[in-house]
Amino acid sequence: MPFFGIEAKFRQHRLAAIIASMPGFGHLLGAELLAATNGDLTSFTTADPLAGIAGLAPVPRDSGRISGNLKRPRRYDRRLLRVFYLAANNSIKTSPESRNYHDRKRSEGKCHSQAVLCLARRRLNVLWAMQRDNTSYQPELPRAA
């Protein structure tokens, strides 16, 4: 008897292999990403509109003489933010590149949740570029000293 669940439906999508190749994304988070974006990441001209909708692009909230206040936008898709946050959090455990980036942000003085949000934005940019170029995730090669 064939199984027609979320995983089977996700694997039938043309972007499934690209999304699943990125550490931290499984079939559930991948399916949720496709559902939140209507299954088409190409409708976004760049990664910036996607980040804005996901709540990962900070907007200025300046007042009077105070400038440099960056906050999350008031209107964003909480499902997309959840998908990218959970995928980034999962990738910290499985991907050395993500762990190094997270540790670097922590050493800059950010708390854990801020560092995960920075990593989520970076991974959103990578995922958008991967679907644009139709390539799978390639881990960063070690650099020579």
What does this structure look like?
The protein has 145 residues and is an all-alpha fold. It is built from 7 helices and 2 strands. It starts with 5 loop residues before the first helix and ends in a 12-residue tail after the last helix. 25% of the residues are buried. It has a two-stranded antiparallel ribbon. The mean pLDDT is 86. The protein has one domain (6-133). The longest helix is centred in the C-terminal third of the chain and has 22 residues, at 112-133. α5 crosses α6 (96-107).
Order of helices and strands: HHHHEEHHH
User: What is the rounded distance between the termini?
Assistant: 55 Å
In which order are the strands of the major sheet placed? 1-2
**Number of contiguous helices:** 7
Mean pLDDT value = 86
Shape call: globular
Q: What is the rounded Rg?
A: 17 Å
List the uncertain runs. none
What's the number of extended β-strand segments?
A: 2
Helix content: 55-70%
What is the total domain count? 1
Percent strand equals: under 5%
Largest sheet: 2 strands, antiparallel
Assign the structural class, choosing from mainly alpha, mainly beta, alpha/beta, alpha+beta, or little secondary structure: mainly alpha
